[in-house]
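TICKET #2291
ISSUE: user wants both folds in one file
ATTACHMENT 1:
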Amino acid sequence: MGRGRVELKRIENKINRQVTFSKRRNGLLKKAYELSVLCDAEVALIIFSSRGKLYEFGSAGISKTIERYQRCCFNPQDNSIERETQSWYQEVTKLKSKYESLQRTQRNLLGEDLGPLSVKELQNLEKQLEGALAMARQRKTQIMVEQMEELRKRERELGDINKQLKMKLETERLNLKAIQDLWGSSAAAAGTTNFPLHPSHESTINCEPEPTLQIGYQHYVPAEGSSGPKTMVGETNFIQGWVL
């Protein structure tokens, strides 16, 4: 006959309860061990008896499994922060390694720390330097050509400006010459014009003073050596002896 179905309930008999606990505990521990070995699983088993006695099994250690369980179940946010922190730490490590490599390469390009380099590495370094030198010379030549083109363009612009200024000066000079010629012709035309003159204008202007009449008495003192008094009527038109 097959084994009947056992009803699951608390065993009232202490002896039977203790025997059942021991058997099933050992079987459970055995199953946990087999599961960890056969399936490569991380298994942790904790059992407390009715008397408070602890029985445990951990394929990777009880503490480690409990910490993992807490990270996965109880603190998902902390777990995310930890993963992000770990990712940043790895990134910083990579960047630090790359930075050190670039510094070492820079020192090698400057001719420093060449002792640890092998012949192949020195050849590669030489090729890099030759390529960098060729690129630098090419860039320098390009800049010089561009500067020459710019100077030539500026020279042409200045030449055009100079031509314009010369043309403007020549135009101003021609205009000034035309004005001067016009003034000269006008002056010459004014000098050769024959205007009729008044008959009184034909003779020379007489600048001798006309006779004047002086009223009043003026004492005349004759000069030394003179023979006698002279009249001043003919010379000064002065009539002696008259008083107003």
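ATTACHMENT 2:
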Amino acid sequence: MAAMALADLMVCMFNVILQNIFRYHILNSWLSYTYVCRFTAFIQVFSSQLSVWFTVSFTFDRFISICCQKLKLKYCTERTASVVLTIVCLLSFLMNIPVYFRYEPYSIIDDIPWGCRTVSGHFYSPAWVAYKWINTLSSPILPFPLLLLLNSLTARHILVASRSRRALKSRNNGENSSDPEMKMRRTGIILLFAISGSFIVLWTPITVINICVGVTETPTFKGSNSLYLAIRIALLLMYLSSCTNTCIYVLTQRRFREEMKNMVKYPVTVITKLFK
């Protein structure tokens, strides 16, 4: 959960605040240096991929903890979580290294490289084309079926266990007896499909655009305002997905809601004590 929150925070900082606010509204700043521009481009792709695969890793962890009781004791440990997160970070880092070399200086002023523009071979080189397709497949095309499969299997396991529990409870206590455990399981099913649904809905537009651009080999906008607007809206939805998953998971936890209430009440309590 903390890793998911950190990855989503990185997306908000680098992709939203740094790239879409500071860089566009503060011209000719240190962000315009080519080396800084390259680094921020790398961090943006890296953080987005971490956000996606941390969500998949957390979903897999929930699947193991609910559906595989024998494997749960070995897999659901702090050491395993650390190893999985380290592997995901390392693979994402290595996979996105080519992003740094995708850009070249837009201009050179006083021997200082300024700006970033895509290298000319990026759109036609077989190596770059293959890398783009691999990157698109790894995030988010591959996570789509993985999230659906894991959450569907988890929901199926919960439904089967709930059906057996309901039958046992009805024989012992009657049909109208309330069962808090059943309510928790129904909430769990809703939570699982909310995660899958929000991820798929918010990532689908940018995925479709990437596939269409890759298939049609469209290197530039060619004056198409509608395509530019579609890409900006798709990116907005993609960035939004980086915060919804963590919010959905955390806000449904009773302990987190209690801590939020305490945080809101704390200033009022301090002010009240000062005036007493």
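RESOLUTION: both attachments delivered.
EXTRA DETAIL ON ATTACHMENT 2: Strands lie at 103-104, 107-109, 112-114, 117-118.
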